[in-house]
Design goal:
CATH topology: Rossmann fold
Oligomer: single chain
Number of strands: 8
Number of helices: 9
CATH superfamily: NAD(P)-binding Rossmann-like Domain
Radius of gyration: 18 Å
Helix content: 40-55%
Structural class: alpha/beta
Distance between the termini: 29 Å
CATH architecture: 3-Layer(aba) Sandwich
Strand order of the largest sheet: 3-2-1-4-5-6-7-8
């Protein structure tokens, strides 16, 4: 595995992305961190804070909106040097317009969590601007968390058409639970990553869930009652029952996934089947469908038609 010295992190001005940047900067072997964010002012504020907290001047801002492929392509064109690793962290349940379609024909939620990252990886690979590792933020929602009211995605046949219906929202009713939709999108992401790992064997592709994490922005746009429970009430109670852990633990999974070579390419790592915290395991041990090459390539084909 090529030593990782430079890392680009999407959604790095807040939450897990910012914390991952902070933890990486505390390592002597990391010499450059690109904060890939869509808001200039928030990016500058995060950069200043991170420099103060870590005592290191290794942060550089890359303006990018991962929900907009045009913005992604423009950001990559402006890159003047390669990076060793990329953390595809940005996303979440998005706002009330999450189900609206973008000009590319996918829902806003799919664009922010998947399509922009697909375009980013494709552009970096085409321009030979990533040398070692791509890490995608997965989610335990893909195996379901019944204790949190999150069901495992129901897949009929893992066809290109079914994955396409997740991308354009046709699989879901207009009133579908945002967490149900999010779980399906993250499932697409895990399959896409595994397919890319086989197509690009010189690059390591690892899907790593940060776990159920308190203090993130990912639940900000849920319906009121769910937001109240997950972010405020649950954020205090669920850690007591191993249903959530701190943001530093969530971000440390990213760091381990990047820097620990025992986390293999084409694998999806997350907590066991009952809790979104605790030691991570290869998710194909829970859902063998994740290791099916045909399903993986179908997911890749489905997302590439929009990219």
């Amino acid at each position: 595995m090529t030593p990782i010295q430079s890392v680009l992190i999407t959604g790095a001005n807040a939450g897990l992305g910012r914390e991952a940047a902070r933890q990486l900067a505390l390592r002597d072997d990391i010499s450059k961190i690109y904060l890939a964010c869509r808001n200039q002012a928030k990016s500058e504020a995060a950069k200043t804070e991170l420099q103060t907290e870590t005592g290191r001047n290794i942060f550089e801002i890359t303006l990018i909106n991962v929900a907009d492929p045009t913005s992604v392509r423009a950001a990559v064109r402006q890159m003047t040097s390669s990076v060793d690793a990329v953390v595809l962290n940005a996303g979440g349940t998005i706002g009330s317009n999450r189900n609206d379609l973008t000009p590319d024909g996918v829902t806003n939620m799919f664009a922010a969590n998947m399509l922009g990252h697909v375009v980013l990886v494709d552009e970096l690979l085409q321009r030979q601007l990533v040398t070692s590792t791509v890490l995608y933020a997965g989610s335990e929602a893909t195996h379901g968390i019944p204790k949190m009211g999150i069901e495992r995605p129901k897949m009929a046949n893992y066809s290109v058409e079914e994955f396409t219906s997740i991308a354009n929202g046709k699989k879901f009713s207009p009133k579908a639970d945002p967490l149900e939709v999010y779980a399906n999108i993250k499932l697409v992401g895990a399959h896409w990553m595994a397919s890319m790992a086989r197509q690009q064997p010189h690059i390591r592709f690892v899907t790593m869930s940060p776990g159920g994490t308190t203090g993130t922005n990912g639940m900000d746009e849920l319906p009121f009652l769910k937001r109240l429970f997950f972010k405020h009430i649950g954020g205090r109670l669920m850690p007591l029952f191993a249903m959530m852990h701190s943001i530093d633990k969530g971000a440390s999974r990213y760091v381990e996934g990047l820097l620990n070579p025992t986390f293999e390419s084409d694998r999806f790592y997350a907590s066991g089947p009952d809790y979104p915290t605790g030691p991570v395991v290869d998710q194909s041990s829970i859902n063998p469908d994740l290791s099916n090459p045909a399903y993986q390539d179908n997911a890749n084909q489905a997302v590439q038609q929009f990219a």
